[in-house]
Amino acid sequence: MAARFSRAFISTLVISLIASTSPANAATIKAGAACTKAGQVKSSKGAKYTCAKSGKKLIWKLAKPDGNSAAPAPTASPSPTATASPTAAPSPSPTSTAAQTIWSKNGLTKPASLDAIIKSASDSFARYTANIRSDVTVKVVAQSGVDPLLASWVQDGANFVAKRFAYPKPTRQFVNVIASDVKWLEEAYTKEGFSVNEVRDRVGGFNAGAPAFGGSNTNTWNFATITKNNLMVRNRTGMAQTAGHEFFHAIQEVLAKGNNPGVKGENIPNWYWEGPAQFVGLQTAATLGYFDYRSAGREEMTSRYRNGAAINRTSSLSDIRENDGVKDPYAIGFAATELLVALVGMEKMIAVYEALGSTRDFAPAFQQGTGIALADFLAIFEELRETLGFAKG
Asked: Which of 217, 246, 278, 343 has the maximum number of C-beta atoms within 10 A of its C-beta?
């Protein structure tokens, strides 16, 4: 083993070794053997020794690397049978990658909060409806005695959606009718040129007692039901949003080419029929200044969810297919639509209905329109439904 020395010591050592050429100097030196000159340094069999005083004698001591004497350090001798093995190359460890989440899989970023979801969805609606996309106008026919405020809501809300959404133009004038009795309703539709079958359909919906119901070329309001239930006071927010809501149903139908939910939502789950219409209706009414979207519009939906049938709170979104008066697709469908629009925007939410015009299967249409597999979106909704204010259980 090579030792390290100071420059002065190296010079002394070299001079000493050159001067010592006698046979005696070539003798083997051992630690503890007598020597004659203190400080003398010699090498023997690859080791260096220093002559140092021990008691009254001078003896050879094994030199430390700094040139000072020291007792020889024990050196482990290799076993005769042991052979040095080459250093093994470290085995490559498997690449450590984080498990792909449902968010990264779909190229989405998980919203940080409810505020972020509401803002993103509302901003997307505002951007989409900032432009006039259609020259369709809606004619409103109201029976004498109908609340003029309701007539105003119907006129403004329907025309807002009619002009700002992209869809095939109706083949005839779109008409909204607000009636207090069925006889006047029948006469009004006949006068507007609707067929016998179309009039019969409108009469059937009116007699069923719904406050409002939609169609592909007309929407109808039953003012008798609205008055009887004092809905202009008790559910002012709900009534104010119906015009945008019902006209969006017409857009859904025309984009989907007549494809509709079916009796039990077997074609299209009702959460994706009523939920988007509810979202559009509430956003439209808020945009027109009828109420605040968050404190009134959203609050109506969360209240409806909390106070509705328990099955809606214990069911997964995928189970809310019916619209049967027990399972309620409006509130939970609104929450799912708000989340979807926040994630992918209005255009992709609407594109699902266009896809339904060519495929009758909802799952592939949903993926084609939004770019997200239906199963993935359902899982995302269940993950965030408590954040949205629609906790399960």
From this structure: 278
Write down the pTM of the prediction: 0.75
SS3 for 1?
A: coil
Q: H/E element holding 175?
A: strand 174-179
Domain residue limits, the chain? 7-62, 103-388
Q: Are the C-beta atoms of 335 and 390 separated by less than 8 Å? A: yes
For the record, the structure tokens of 32 come out as 């503890």
Calpha distance 216→218 (Å, rounded): 6
**Closest alpha carbon to 339 in 303, 392, 383:** 383
Q: Which of 29, 17, 101 is nearest to 380 (CA)?
A: 101
- Around 74, how many Cα atoms within 13 Å sit in the side-chain half-sphere? 2
What is the Cα–Cα distance from 375 to 369, expressed in whole angstroms?
14
Do 198 and 171 contact (CB within 8 A), yes or no?
Answer: no
pLDDT tens over the chain, length 393 residues? 444 443 333 333 333 333 334 344 445 677 777 888 777 878 776 677 778 777 767 887 776 544 444 444 444 444 444 444 444 444 444 433 445 799 999 999 999 999 999 999 999 999 999 999 999 999 999 999 999 999 999 999 999 999 999 999 999 999 999 999 999 999 999 999 999 999 999 999 999 999 999 999 999 999 999 999 999 999 999 999 999 999 999 999 999 999 999 999 999 999 999 999 999 999 999 999 999 999 999 999 999 999 999 999 999 999 999 999 999 999 999 999 999 999 999 999 999 999 999 988 999 999 999 999 999 999 999 999 999 999 999
CATH number 1.10.4160 is the correct assignment for the domain at 103-388: no
